[in-house]
Amino acid sequence: MSKKDPNIICTDLTRYYGPNRGIEGLNLSIGHGEIFGFLGPNGAGKTTTIRMLMGMLKPSSGRATVLGLDAWGDSTKIKLHVGNVPGEPRLYENLHVDDLLNYIDRYRPGPDLLREELIERLSLDVSKKVKALSKGNRQKVAIVLAMMHDPEILILDEPSTGLDPLMQQEFYTILGEFRDRGRTVFLSSHILSEVERVCDRVGIVKEGRLVDLRAIEELRQNKIRHMDVIFRNQVDATEFEILPQVISVQVTNNHLHITFRGEVDSLVKQIARHEVEDLTFMQPNLEDFFMSFYGSSGQTGNVPEAEKDVLP
Amino acid sequence: MNYNLLRQSFAERRVSLLIYAIGVAAYGIMILAIWPSMQNTGITELWDRYPESIKKAFGASINFGTFDGFMTLEYFAQMWVIVMAAYAISVATGSLAGEIEKGTMELLLGQPISRRAIVVTRHLYFSLGLIVLIAATLAPIIIGAPVAGGDISYRGLAALSLQAFLFYGAIGSIAFFFSASFSSRGRALFASLGILIASYALDLLSKFSDFVDHFHRLSLFYYYDPYRYVHDVSFAWGDLAVLAAIIVFFTAGAVVWFERRDIAV
Predict the structure, then answer these.
(1) Closest CA to A105 of A116, A93, A94
(2) Hey, where are the domains in chain B?
(3) Which of A21, B54, B88, B216 could covalently link to B172 via disulfide, CB atoms 3.0 to 4.6 Å apart?
(4) Please, what are the domains in chain A?
(5) CA of B110 to nearest chain A CA: how many angstroms apart?
(6) Model confidence, pTM
(7) ipTM value of the model?
């Protein structure tokens, strides 16, 4: 397999649980040195996809390959090169963290190059028993277990759950360093800001189907955002309404609630012409995001032709 | 087989294995200690006066007045079966279904270890544990029998070891199959216990009913006759082969099933 080949390819990947849909007709290819965000609400099919990539679930139809190997049939070989943080990591409760790390380390022939560095950067106490750890610390253990061998591919299911903001920031930095070393990261999340912060590309999945696939920059430019501004004096709302990116302005005395899409620069400059008492910039939640992009049905897909090319 | 998983299996379950080992050894020592006081109490005559149906249920051919007969009736055919079967079912159902239920199977399967290796290694751990428990049961009897004035054949005990290993191995292998099939330890436990209890009931009923006796060979207990081994030192090679075949069949079934199934914790 050459460096030019994608590390992860899903071709018409479908999984049903009896009559219930898990994921349907997923076509994706993820290259080297890329952090790919797999974004969607709970129940959209993210975990099902990850479990098929990890060889836990057999596809109902279609195929997933990781490093050119079949995710179901060659699962054992694949895992030599893959680190995984499951959605809800369950660890051996009676082991000390250090013993757990040693135990998992012995499954791979290579050294655990990043173990000490990760322990230090995530401030993990390895002397404690797993059962004595908080949710956040368990998540840190799961992250160290997945990353300590510096795997070629990381498959992460909601990995920042339970981490405090400082640790989240450190974790994102570590992910960035992985990418810079040419590693591939498949990151499932339902947190838009997280995906925006660390990913290069995002696939948006809703009700079991990939509804959109685009570069993160494009996502940033197109999403709807809200700004609350309290001016010291009354201002004329029309000077904001005429800006091309502004969708609507609601006025309550000196308080303006501005809804806009796209670049923020000219809007901020317009605001700065007045005396500002307070300014709040709100990130849209996932539901707002879906509403703004796809309406409630999520049917207006925008999957590039290039991704469809992975079809046989 | 995966050495790392085998080592971890022993580390994880060493306390419970030790408790089982102490339990079977202590119970054996207790029965040994009773023997001297039972020898001259007319227990044989009492046994002879028992109704035929009762004697049939416990093993009509057993001579209660001999040390090996006493050990068989008081231990090898009673409490030992319960404890060893409990060990077999508990370890087997905890090894696969138990790990799926707890969620730790996802961590294990996230490592470069095949599903086949997981089943085979866990089964090997179970089998080594069986050997430890059989040794822990028989060692105090071998050492203590002369002290307690009991006469027992060492060859008979060796023969009993082989039979016990295959019999409890068969129970464990059936439980492994259910453990590989279900995601809930409770279900695997229920199915395994169901087979065991049905098997015991069939064995018991076949001693009273000629009709049921036609199906006696379907019971696992048909193939477990500790008195024959410990007293007569007579190997029923056909029965041992059936037990070995059950082990191979259900273990292979567990591997095949576990390799093909979804693991969704």
Answers:
(1) A116
(2) 3-260
(3) B88
(4) 8-220+295-308 (3.40.50.300), 225-283 (3.30.70)
(5) 7
(6) 0.87
(7) 0.88
